[in-house]
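User: Sequence in, structure out. Go.
Assistant: Echoing your sequence, followed by the structure tokens.
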Amino acid sequence: MNDHHIKLFESVNVRSHWDTAQEKWYFSVVDVVQVLTDSSIPKRYWSDLRRKLEKESGQPYEEIVRLKMSSADGKSRETDTADVQTLLRLIQSIPSPKAEPFKLWLAKVGYERMQEIADPAQSLDRARENWQKLGRSEKWIQQRMTGQETRNKLTDYWQTHGVEKSDEFALLTNIIHQEWAGVSVKEHKALKTLDKTNSTQNLRDHMSEAELIFTALAELSTRQIAVKQVAQGLQENAKAGVAGGRVAKRAKDDLEQQTGQAVVTSSNFLPPVKTVAGLPLRFPRQNNRVKATKTKKV
């Protein structure tokens, strides 16, 4: 079994992949470059660095492994990854004050994985600790973790009932989301002004407690309906997704009518823009203000 994870280095997401057969970590090179350089275009930085390394060695940089990882649009795409040994060599070619702290972090991640294999409960404890470091409330953390468990059960069902391709997973996820939220995953990210080119800005990590709850309700309902109907393949599971999404939509619409407040909002957890003498150092797409969408009365 191969596991995909999001690891945190100084509150920055780094996509990672644990290969059980080889018992080693692989990390997204682009994410590591972004961490070390703070580059606004880490893909270009890595592309230039790779060409430089290949020119110096006179041969292709074969240590890079292409693995599918979640991208900014929620789809799984092939990504340049490297194991710890390869990353340590790459880091030597990237001038950064974060190089030494990052090396220590890599060692810590490896040690923690060994602990989690011996005691799986430590993985959940560590996830909770990461959310706490990011300032999330206990209620939010509990809902995020519960929602992820619900999501995993749904994807497990899909995998054993004729849904195997990553783009099919993304399509079904979007069908459910569109049905309950009234917007697609892409539109929801845009509403929250999340950077579509930044694969580490996961939509669910920026959802409110209510958004997480209704996402989980939609996915729970979808799985239970699919089980009841013994849905098989993409088309049948898509129909179950529509039905499950509508269950959550009805509950959402009822809550909005009772409270007069929209569930789907532009609220996010992006950090504030850093400035020097009143001028922004970066221009991330963000919006920490809550901007409610209009509710529709039934």
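User: And one key feature?
Assistant: DSSP finds ten helices and seven strands in the chain.
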